[in-house]
């Protein structure tokens, strides 16, 4: 029974109904408020994370190794502009607290200058340079000049700030004010520059590496990384040995071992480019700093200056090596892609030849049936001799159609594969038609596991080489050797065709044109020269060698498995 109208209104209209426009406006406002809150939350998270990292790195720093300088450069170069206010506030918090805490000891002028975060001085320079000089050049490369220029600018600006704060410091009566000379300025500059070199290049390399791993975890990618393995074996362990030698030696030997710490970095740079220089420079700089026995150790500062110069040079050299390796790798990828397209084109041509051969056999079969039906209907009219003549002509036409189809695409190849075709198919028939004996040897493993287009290329090249051998010299015996194998994860096949000349001098005349032309017709060959045969073999990553000996002509060719299934990265030309 249906409820009364007043009851329906009482049940479903419990309150005053709001207009639909006001509900939509309220929903949009709530979404906007939620988006704004999330944005503010990210700003606060960035500010707190930067302040925490700054304090941790400042605790690990020494007078000639200022690590926060590297954090400052890295964040300005990699973070979006919208997070820069959070970065400035995040640096102001520890810097301002330090200035406020020591204001009574060094004076309010020093506190005001010391409270200015150096990142605020460097931000305008980086903001001007980022649109004009791009730091990241793809997934593997950087502009080393930009990175080093920003590092140098950061070190200079921070040095100026430190010098200005030192100039206004107020000390108690009777205590001499610290002097500002070239040694002090160089110490400030070296500490900021080396600290930046210890953090910024490695952080940039790590940022690019994390962007590359997609389908595996960081631990798995690190386990399979050749760079990580070389850092551990070729840099970390030698640096440990050199540190032990520094602690166990005295005099000039200590300084020699410190200076030698940049040698593993050179090796790593030669192997991995600028990434090797970045990670190796961080490890070498850390190792030299850990060998310091006192504050502002002159020997350590000298070693640090050498390490800074070495890292700067190696970063430039490694960037150049990386660019060359990238272009070489891109060229190889383009070459492989071209070979893939060529192999695919040959494979499609062979498929078309197979379709044509099937069509010819089908036409020949239909033609034979039509002629048989026609002869059956005219048998009572035609004489027996004419009937036999027509039947013979029909059989001859059928045989020519079959021979042409077999030349286009051998039936044995389709039914039993290349080995059986080379042993007993048209290839052996062509050798016997030329009046020579024939022997076929198949050895090795994995021959049947090669791609179908490699089998096709092997058979076509064998036919062309046989025609070449028969056309060069009169041949008494043909020896075919085929061997398959597997090396470095890729299969290959080697084929050698040897045509032996007749033993007696009377038989060593010029080859019969009729013999090798018949072989060319039977095999469907084109009579290619050795240069064209070599070009065909190079499509499958192989080569051809021809040896003309007194006993006969020998042609050896190598083919690798097909590249059509090899996954490739993006080509350089795309």
By secondary-structure content and strand pairing, the structural class works out as alpha+beta
How many DSSP E strands? 7
Low-confidence stretches: 1-15, 567-574
- Strand order, main sheet: write it out: 3-4-5-7-6
Total helices: the number is 22
Q: How much helix, percentage-wise, in residues?
A: 55-70%
General description of the model:
The structure is a single chain. This protein is an alpha+beta fold and 574 residues long. It has two domains: 39-329, no CATH class; 425-502 and 509-568, 2-Layer Sandwich (Heat Shock Protein 90), CATH 3.30.565.10. Helix content is 68%, strand content 9%. The protein contains 22 helices and seven strands. It has helices at 5-12, 20-60, 68-78, 84-101, 103-106, 108-114, 118-132, 144-167, 182-212, 218-223, 226-248, 252-259, 263-272, 274-290, 298-377, 384-408, 411-416, 418-424, 426-433, 452-472, 513-523, 530-539; strands at 136-137, 141-142, 437-444, 477-487, 490-500, 543-549, 552-560. The strands form two sheets. Strands 3-4-5-7-6 form a five-stranded mixed β-sheet, with helices on one face. The chain has a two-stranded antiparallel ribbon with strand order 1-2. α20 links the parallel β3 (437-444) and β4 (477-487). α4 (84-101) packs antiparallel against α7, α13 packs parallel to α15 and α18 (418-424) packs parallel to α19 (426-433). The radius of gyration is 41 Å and the shape is elongated. The chain starts with a helix and ends in a 14-residue tail after the last strand.
